[in-house]
Amino acid sequence: MWKIAELVMLVFLGIGAVWDIRTKQVPAGYLLAGTVGSVMYQAFTGNQLWYLWVLGIATGGVFLILSKCTGEGIGYGDSWMILNLGIFLGVWKLLCVLGMAFLCSSVAAGAGLMAKKWNRKTRVPFFPFLTIGYMGAMLW
After folding, report:
1. Helical segments of 24-126, H only
2. Alpha carbon 88 to chain centroid, angstroms
3. Residue of 71, 68, 69, 84 lying closest to 26 (CA atoms)
4. Structural domain boundaries of the chain?
């Protein structure tokens, strides 16, 4: 069951990444479906101890607050997806996903800056990096 759920989440992230790249936003209904799916998954499987996914929700909540405080430096959609991943994965795997996502995005930003394709104000979609981080965490 877990492997199927992992693949479903990967496809969900991949679709969200394409949306984010093309339109620079992910629809709220899509993200809500991810929240409902993640909660249902935890309710039916009990795959995570309750406090691990509650801490995952808290981590997503911190990112939502950061989105508000930074004027969407990290977009609301990205933060909402982090919350969804926190429910689905629990806090420890979520932190692995985020670590890999931020590492990959910083490497991409450095490359874009050095190549003079981007500047400090360039807004880069973060969903693709969440997808890459998720794939890395699932392989780990």
Report:
1. 28-45, 50-69, 76-89, 91-114
2. 11
3. 84
4. 2-139
Spatial distance between the Cα atoms of 114 and 122, rounded to a whole number of angstroms: 13
Question: Which is nearest to 22 in space by CA: 128, 129, 131?
Answer: 128
- Residues for the chain: how many in total? 140
- Report the candidate in 114, 119, 124 with the shortest Cα–Cα distance to residue 73: 124
Closest C-alpha among 22, 20, 90 to residue 58: 90
If we measure between CA atoms, which residue out of 73, 82, 121 comes closest to residue 101? 82
**How far apart, in whole angstroms, are the C-alpha atoms of residue 15 and residue 95?**
22
pLDDT tens track for 74-120: 899 999 999 999 999 999 999 999 999 999 999 999 999 899 888 88
Rounded-to-integer distance, Cα 25 and Cα 81, Å: 12
Name the pTM for this structure.
0.93
